[in-house]
Amino acid sequence: xxxxxxxxxxxxxxxxxxxxxxxxxxxxxxxxxxxxxxxxxxxxxxxxxxxxxxxxxxxxxxxxxxxxxxxxxxxxxxxxxxxxxxxxxxxxxxxxxxxxxxxxxxxxxxxxxxxxxxxxxxxxxxxxxxxxxxxxxxxxxxxxxxxxxxxxxxxxxxxxxxxxxxxxxxxxxxxxxxxxxxxxxxxxxxxxxxxxxxxxxxxxxxxxxxxxxxxxxxxxxxxxxxxxxxxxxxxxxxxxxxxxxxxxxxxxxxxxxxxxxxxxxxxxxxxxxxxxxxxxxxxxxxxxxxxxxxxxxxxxxxxxxxxxxxxxxxxxxxxxxxxxxxxxxxxxxxxxxxxxxxxxxxxxxxxxxxxxxxxxxxxxxxxxxxxxxxxxxxxxxxxxxxxxxxxxxxxxxxxxxxxxxxxxxxxxxxxxxxxxxxxxxxxxxxxxxxxxxxxxxxxxxxxxxxxxxxxxxxxxxxxxxxxxxxxxxxxxxxxxxxxxxxxxxxxxxxxxx
Length: 497
What we know:
CATH superfamily of the largest domain: Aldolase class I
Helix content: 40-55%
């Protein structure tokens, strides 16, 4: 045998985000298939982020904390993962260390056991600080990202330096090469992974890429050969396209190379079938492998942002400007110092590009606050110096002077404003989200119906909900014939370990 390979499943977070705009799944959709997912044998589930917590509130009027609790109870064998991006929580505004610490504690208390931490500028000092906060909050596994990009300044020396710095982060259990744009080519991926493995001190290295350029399946095979042992995949209905490679084909390819794994193929097939049925029921798209497009390396729009850009221009009745907007994205990115095209920086670059091509007054007639803050360095130092004339023009404006003094979101006075008896979870939502959205969530029905695509799980999900509401119950064991189901409250599981 060559070795073993693990999978981190991205179906519910990144697959959903890449193909279904992040809004495709409700709590009941996830709960209906959760027991099946728990049988598959994934190392972890890439489950949520602060953005997805907000989506639950904004689009579904669902309590995102309840979703965490119920899904954690429904799949006790599989670690739920929280992805955090820089020093922010839900809002684009910076968050204080105190607020981030509360957010991380709340995420862990409600069922998350693993953190994936990235920074849009690969600021290793910030990554280390966030790793310490996650560890202090009780995270069982902390994974730090090296985010990949292509530009004149993202060269060999750049990545060598970041990899060496990452290896010094003592609170990291693992590292992962994160390729949000699907820009990696096989040889480059193998080189970077080999460097990461050599410096990681025995800590595992994971790989996360997208099929945007169609190369990710080949990238995964080459990174296995280079020493990676954990790959991020989605089940086939939510794979390919701008999502990750499929779990099914990744496993088949790895097995063909002689790698072993601990995946239950029958459970994986049932999980995949469920999401296929759900896509048909909701009229949502299935991922299809894209053809290779060299022009993609010019604009580097991640995930589903090309579709979003097209829709925005159509809503403005300027669909004819799509090609010009793509060209402008590349130009704006260079002028801003080649920021990595990843959330939230990619959104800022695209927004500015659209404003530039539709404005009758010329380029940069209007500059959003987020772009001003980017030039102020509030999202980390850019890889290259921004265009000097642009920076002087923007940073000499009165708005830049105001934003230069922007205070991070904090807990100071929050209890006095929102109530001393509300939970930390509700307080975090009220600090970071519009009041009307939080109120709409709180007044909505607290118990969504289980999706009909898997009605046979409904009694089990109902039982889990009832157990969650009874803090005096810590352990339940059910046996029917040769089948045994055991449930433990999270605190009991921690003590047992």
